[in-house]
Design a protein that fits this description.
The protein is α+β, with helices and mostly antiparallel strands. Helices cover about 20% and strands about 35% of the residues.
């Protein structure tokens, strides 16, 4: 027998055309949301990420979410707590970032990387990225690092200090 709380929530089907979805600028990375947690009763969120050269996600640890990354185009460098060295991930590569394990990724170029990212559950990161987008708009670019860290902390994500 399935989970009663999931069975009791009726969801509408969701369809997005190519290029459709809410767009956010999250620390220089464009997110195009295909499914927000509000549309999936908090079960998951799913988005495309367009990562310019030199951009990515700093080392961080999620308290509440698991993330999965699939590289469609370009290449990213992935760092994972406990791994001896960073790994390069090109088209067709997959990476699972479980909650509680620090990870980071960056695009070292030369071109843009295009990823699909799946987050379970989706609610916390959706809100965090929305706040980071708003903070960037207010700052006219990249918000100050202490503000980024404070936003992340409120959503159960610890950003590790730079080396």
């Amino acid at each position: 027998m399935g989970n009663a709380s999931l069975e009791s929530t009726k969801l509408d089907a969701l369809f997005r055309e190519s290029g459709d979805g809410q767009r956010l600028n999250v620390l220089g990375v464009t997110h195009v949301y295909k499914a927000l947690s509000a549309q999936t009763a908090g079960r998951f969120s799913f988005w495309e990420a367009f990562v310019p050269c030199g951009q990515g996600a700093p080392p961080h640890t999620h308290t509440n979410e698991d993330e999965a990354f699939y590289v469609l185009d370009g290449e990213i460098v992935v760092e994972v707590e406990g791994e001896a060295r960073p790994r390069r991930a090109g088209p067709g590569s997959f990476f699972f970032g479980p909650r509680g394990r620090r990870h980071a990724f960056r695009n070292e170029g030369p071109g843009e990387a295009h990823l699909l990212i799946f987050c379970v559950p989706g609610e916390g990161l959706d809100r965090m990225f929305g706040e980071m987008h708003t903070a960037g708009e207010r700052a006219g670019g990249m918000p100050p690092m202490d503000q980024i860290v404070n936003i992340a902390t409120r959503h159960g994500v610890a950003i590790s200090p730079p080396n």
